[in-house]
């Protein structure tokens, strides 16, 4: 497929490294370009040993001509305003992400999940339900396992369960999941996509190549999702938390149903939060498309209490319950977390400033008794908390200090919730690092 083609891998990190190695294995002539200099790149020695060309420390625009590039495999984080990417577009050189590369070589069918919120939880639920039913699922994509690496071990017996972001989907051409799940659309990553319409179009690419052998899982409560689903030529299965649907999953009489059949009582579900019901319904639709039985679904829902960093219950210290929701990197995710609790909440929030205000949080502050702020957005979050009438607001330097401050001002029965409403990159490399610091600080209290 890529034999003797000249391929530029633009940007390293995990996905770029795996893509470069795979392309080399497939017989391509690979050039890697990364903005980090040689001495700051841990991966270059391995790539050099394979004979892969490396251009580091800058993005020289003449790269495409000098290396006669046929295709560009772009790290999802690199924006389309990058001069090399723009030049490639002008010269009609395809620019893809490694998700497209993974699809091209995969023997296994793919269940792909995207949406503004809930992707990781839904992806994990689908994986666990398939596994509980005796299928052979593999986790891949934005959830932490690079797709083009995972698919190399996949056979026709496997099902690859892949979380995909709008950044990754934008770089797809032929990507066609056998089951495509679109959870919801909210304003997110507009700094990358420019407009909401561009963002929606990127998400819609999950459906655009589907044929009559494919399945589209659609949130019927979200009109933008319904509109985007028109791009799919597959069978459509719907889910709703608000109404009964004739073909799919819904809630009735405090229970979850699928196609007129009761699956489980909500009280028997381990996963907390109203928003997680949406994720559960979507997961049920996806696995029902693969003939997973009710017993497997019930077993997972009765025991699965959440993924790490997403409303993760960390433990109780002196009557206070601690929850790690570090993956809440936008306002919507934090509103969903706040909706999950009726106990008094001490909210820990703050992080990278993307230019937005936080007034959208105000209606969800009804159970919030105190706010601890940190990071670049601390003044903005303080302003929103003051507008909501919260009197107890403290500012600290980092997440660890926030845990200790929250414990000091809290009472027995309170929930102490890290749900930053912001990306972590002003202080931490990843939301995972931020969440781990929170967890470690809670253990120090113990």
From TrEMBL:
It comes from the Bacteria. One of its GO terms (biological process) is cell division. One of its GO terms (molecular function) is ATP binding. InterPro entries: Mur-like_cat_sf, Mur_ligase_C, Mur_ligase_C_dom_sf, Mur_ligase_cen, MurD. Keywords: ATP-binding, Cell cycle, Cell division, Cell shape, Cell wall biogenesis/degradation, Cytoplasm, Ligase, Nucleotide-binding, Peptidoglycan synthesis. One of its GO terms (cellular component) is cytoplasm. Its EC number is 6.3.2.9. It is an enzyme of class 6 (ligase). It holds the Pfam family Mur_ligase_C. Residues 113-287 form the Mur ligase central domain. Residues 309-422 form the Mur ligase C-terminal domain. It catalyses: UDP-N-acetyl-alpha-D-muramoyl-L-alanine + D-glutamate + ATP = UDP-N-acetyl-alpha-D-muramoyl-L-alanyl-D-glutamate + ADP + phosphate + H(+). It is found in: Cytoplasm. ATP binds at residues 115-121. Pathway: Cell wall biogenesis; peptidoglycan biosynthesis. NCBIfam families: murD (TIGR01087). Belongs to the MurCDEF family. HAMAP family: MurD (MF_00639). Cell wall formation. Catalyzes the addition of glutamate to the nucleotide precursor UDP-N-acetylmuramoyl-L-alanine (UMA). This is UDP-N-acetylmuramoylalanine--D-glutamate ligase.
């Amino acid at each position: 497929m890529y034999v003797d083609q000249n391929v530029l891998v633009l940007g390293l990190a995990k996905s770029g490294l795996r893509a470069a190695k795979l392309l080399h294995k497939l017989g391509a002539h690979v050039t890697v370009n990364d903005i980090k200099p040689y001495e700051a790149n841990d991966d270059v020695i391995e790539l050099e040993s394979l004979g892969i060309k490396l251009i580091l420390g800058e993005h020289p625009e003449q790269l495409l001509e000098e290396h006669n590039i046929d295709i560009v495999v772009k790290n999802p984080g690199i924006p389309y305003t990058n001069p090399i990417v723009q030049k490639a577009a002008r010269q009609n050189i395809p620019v893809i992400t490694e998700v497209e590369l993974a699809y091209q070589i995969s023997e296994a069918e793919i269940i792909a999940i995207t949406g503004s919120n809930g992707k990781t939880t839904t992806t994990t639920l689908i994986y666990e339900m398939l596994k509980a039913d005796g299928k052979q699922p593999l986790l891949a994509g934005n959830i932490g396992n690079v797709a083009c690496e995972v698919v190399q071990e996949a056979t026709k017996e496997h099902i690859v369960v892949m979380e995909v972001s709008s950044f990754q989907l934008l770089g797809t051409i032929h990507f066609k999941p056998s089951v495509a799940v679109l959870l919801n659309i909210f304003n997110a990553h507009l700094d990358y996509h420019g407009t909401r319409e561009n963002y929606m179009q990127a998400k819609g690419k999950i459906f655009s190549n589907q044929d009559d052998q494919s399945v589209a899982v659609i949130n019927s409560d979200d009109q933008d999702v319904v509109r985007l689903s028109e791009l799919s030529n597959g069978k459509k299965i719907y889910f709703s938390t608000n109404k009964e649907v004739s073909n799919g999953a819904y809630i009735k009489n405090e229970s979850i149903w699928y196609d007129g059949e009761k699956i489980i009582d909500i009280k028997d579900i381990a996963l907390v939060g109203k928003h997680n019901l949406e994720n559960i319904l979507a997961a049920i639709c996806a696995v029902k498309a693969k003939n997973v039985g009710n017993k497997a679904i019930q077993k997972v829902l009765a025991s699965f209490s959440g993924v790490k960093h997403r409303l993760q219950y960390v433990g109780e210290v002196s009557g206070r319950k601690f929850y790690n929701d570090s993956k809440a990197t936008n306002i919507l995710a934090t509103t969903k977390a706040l909706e999950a609790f009726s106990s008094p909440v001490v909210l820990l929030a703050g992080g990278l400033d993307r230019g937005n205000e936080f007034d959208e949080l105000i209606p969800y502050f009804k159970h919030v008794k105190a706010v601890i702020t940190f990071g670049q957005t601390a003044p903005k979050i303080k302003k929103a908390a003051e507008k909501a009438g919260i009197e107890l607001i403290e500012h600290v330097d980092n997440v660890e200090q926030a845990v200790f401050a929250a414990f000091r001002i809290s009472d027995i029965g309170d929930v102490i919730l890290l749900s930053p409403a912001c990306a972590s990159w002003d202080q931490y490399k990843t939301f995972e690092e931020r969440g781990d610091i929170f967890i470690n600080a809670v253990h120090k209290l113990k």
